[in-house]
Design goal:
Layout lengths: L4 H11 L1 H9 L4 E6 H4 L4 E6 L2 E6 L6 H14 L4 E6 L13 H7 L3 E5 L2 E5 L15 H10 L4 E5 L5 H8 L4 E6 L2 H13 L7 E4 L2 H8 L7 E2 L2 E2 L11 E6 L4 E4 L2 E4 L5 H9 L1 E11 L6 H15 L5 E5 L15 E6 L1
Parallel strand pairs: 3-4, 7-8, 7-12, 8-9, 12-15
Antiparallel strand pairs: 1-2, 2-3, 5-6, 10-11, 13-14, 15-17, 16-17
Helix pairs in contact: 1-4, 6-7, 9-10, 10-11
Length: about 350
């Protein structure tokens, strides 16, 4: 017989015991408690963000019995958390399940949590769909904090600027966050205000292609093929010691197409040109259908075409709260010395 859901939750919690002790000791209280795709219940994820317990389903909705079982288990294992359930099993992973008024009010309350001593905001229900900080990217934020002291950072597709805030906290000399969504940058600014930062990060509301082309010195025309482009901020050319590239799987705008499966090079080329000689480019790819080997070949070919050489490529694996059966986690993070 398949293991019961409670047994799966208990096994996952036991497997994390040492990791959670380490995370708590470094002032981190946000992590994945249950990763369904690798722990026996595909489509179910359970995350802790401070005092928030966030349940999310992506394949099918939880029935009432399973939801109660999950909430009861964690009420005993991690007391004092507010449980919110978001069913995202419908079209475009949108949250569809209604909540009672008092639960909805709790879900819409901004909450503060910590990661490696950095403070961030989270809200279980908001205008978007995704949590305001992706927990599997903690390994990338950790590495940036180890690398960035005294250096400049360009954070592309910054979302709520978690990487940029962590970099500023770790002693970066200059931080620029770029995202097309002003609503995401607003959360980034609020995250910055939560922390005692030695510098003031910059927040650039721009399409990433337009920003990269200008910073790389290529330039972004205001008219392309006879069509006037949307307004974009003007940026002076400059390179950065460290560039962090974390694009969505697919997106299309008048400035270009993001397709991390079929054309990662369209992003990597301008990102490389924004990276100072001898600098570091950290690339992320969250498409499960592309292997590390195939993707690394793409990165190497792109660098050669741009006239850059990759001196070293290092894989940054997600941490232990994101286990995988075969060591091939969906999120791939490649650190390139160029």
């Amino acid at each position: 017989m398949p293991a019961s859901l409670t047994t799966l939750l208990a096994d996952a919690f036991a497997a994390r015991r040492e990791l959670l002790h380490t995370l708590h000791a470094e002032d981190t209280n946000a992590y994945r408690l249950f990763n369904g795709s690798s722990e026996g219940r595909p489509g179910l994820n359970v995350d802790r963000y401070g005092d928030l317990l966030l349940l999310q389903t992506f394949h099918e909705a939880l029935d009432g019995h399973d939801r109660v079982a999950i909430e009861r288990f964690y009420a005993d294992a991690v007391p004092g958390l507010t449980a919110i359930y978001n069913d995202r099993s419908g079209a475009n992973s949108r949250v569809t399940n209604p909540l009672p008024p008092e639960v909805l009010a709790a879900a819409q309350q901004p909450r503060e949590f910590h990661e490696m001593g950095v403070r961030y905001l989270v809200q279980a229900r908001h205008a978007g769909q995704d949590p305001w900080l992706f927990l599997d990217l903690r390994a990338g934020r950790r590495r940036v904090m180890q690398e960035v002291a005294g250096k400049s950072l360009l954070n592309l597709f910054a979302y709520t600027c978690g990487v940029g805030i962590a970099a500023a906290r770790a002693g970066a000399a200059h931080v620029v966050n770029v995202d097309f969504a002003e609503s995401s940058l607003k959360i980034g600014r609020e995250n910055a205000r939560l922390n005692d930062l030695p510098i003031r990060p910059r927040f650039v509301h721009s399409d990433a292609f337009a920003a990269m082309r200008q910073l790389a010195g290529i330039g972004q025309p205001q008219v392309v093929r006879g069509r006037k482009m949307p307004a974009f901020p003007k940026l002076e050319p400059r390179t950065f010691d460290l560039v962090f590239l974390d694009p969505p799987r697919y997106a299309k705008s008048p400035f270009g197409v993001v397709d991390i499966v079929n054309d990662y090079a369209a992003l990597m080329k301008p990102a490389l040109l924004c990276t100072a000689e001898g600098g570091t480019l950290i690339c992320c790819n969250n498409a499960a259908q592309i292997s590390r080997e195939t993707w690394s070949d793409q990165l190497e070919r792109c660098a050669r075409k741009v006239g850059h050489s990759i001196r070293d490529l290092e894989w940054i694996a997600p941490e232990g709260d994101f286990p995988s059966h075969d060591g091939q986690a969906p999120l791939k993070i490649a650190l390139l010395r160029v």
